[in-house]
Amino acid sequence: MILQLAWKNIWRNKVRSAVILLAIMLGLIFGIWVVAFTNGMVNQKVEDTINTEMTLFQVNTQKFVDENEIEYLFADSALESQVRRIPEVTGVSPRILLTAMVASPHKTGGAQVTAIEPEKEKQVSQLYKYIPDSMGNYFADNLKNSVVVGKKFAEKYKVQLHSKIVLSMVNLDGEQVSGAFRICGIFHTNNPVYDEMKMFIQANDARTLTGIAADSIHEMAIQLINYKNSTVAKVQPQIASFLKDGVVVRNWKEILPIISMYTDFMQVELMIIVAIILFALGFGIVNTVLMSVLERKRELSMLMAIGMNRKKVMRLIMTESTILTMLGGFAGMIIGFIAVLVTRKTGVDVSATFGSYQQLGISTLVRPLLTGTQFIIIAIMVILTGILSAIFPARTAIKMNPVEGIRE
Fold first, then answer.
1. pTM to 2 decimals?
2. 179, 139 contact by CB (below 8 A)
């Protein structure tokens, strides 16, 4: 009975109810899309970072982590095969990490050099996909002393494909050594800072230049089937069990805690944005329901006079508010979710508006993303908004004096 009365009361003033429903619906569509857009931007940044700039796990000696000196190496002969046997592991790549002075015919400066085994590196990094066909290849020719550099580096040092550069670094004996390298590929990621400072050479060339032994490395990069917290938490202890004293394994959140903090903060901030939108819409719902109550003051007074207790009156008003909120809220959520699916498939190009974001390593082609957890939280917030918005109008109704209400 109460549900039927509430439904009829909502549509007594069709225009007023339609306006507030439209407001709730549009507010939710906007809120959900903003959440999904920002979530997609953050998610894209994390994916790009994990797939190109680093990996889910890195194994190093603790001294190398602390001091970043060339002599802090460890042997990987048995470790690599042990790690590969973990079911969740999709790739393992040994690396030698060097700091070098770079000289081109036009400029000199510093760079971070990563020496790799190209085929193994493809298992943990998608950097090779960022080399356009017109910009060479990822060590496909396996030529000695070849180097892959970033687009920003090429622009800064005024070099191009097949140009020669000289790398100078310190070997294991503490002596400065130099080698001439020819550029075989130029990559272009979403992070110009990375493109400017990072370059890659083959591990054999680095060993010849620095005297590092064949089974010694600075880092073992490890990639998993996904970067879910549960997967990372499961695999990390398994890797740690294989390590010798002085060698540590760090996950991506430990390596770059600022990105982890940023993603966690953004999740909270996005829910706050939705809460603010619903808070504002709540005032509209309160106003609509309160006006409906005041217009029906005589009717509600008569119901109470003939025996309807105040609890049922309160339930009636709260049911009206909840139905009104849920109709507009869930319609807005469904339309908003469809909008997210459509724009996720096509992507949203924000280069014209947010082109400067690329300087922070954030892609300007954003694919909005709404997680199941976020959708459920928003649904709960919609229901709570409807219930809370009914409290004041309901209290106003039950405080009425039936006798005075009937006389009006």
1. 0.73
2. no
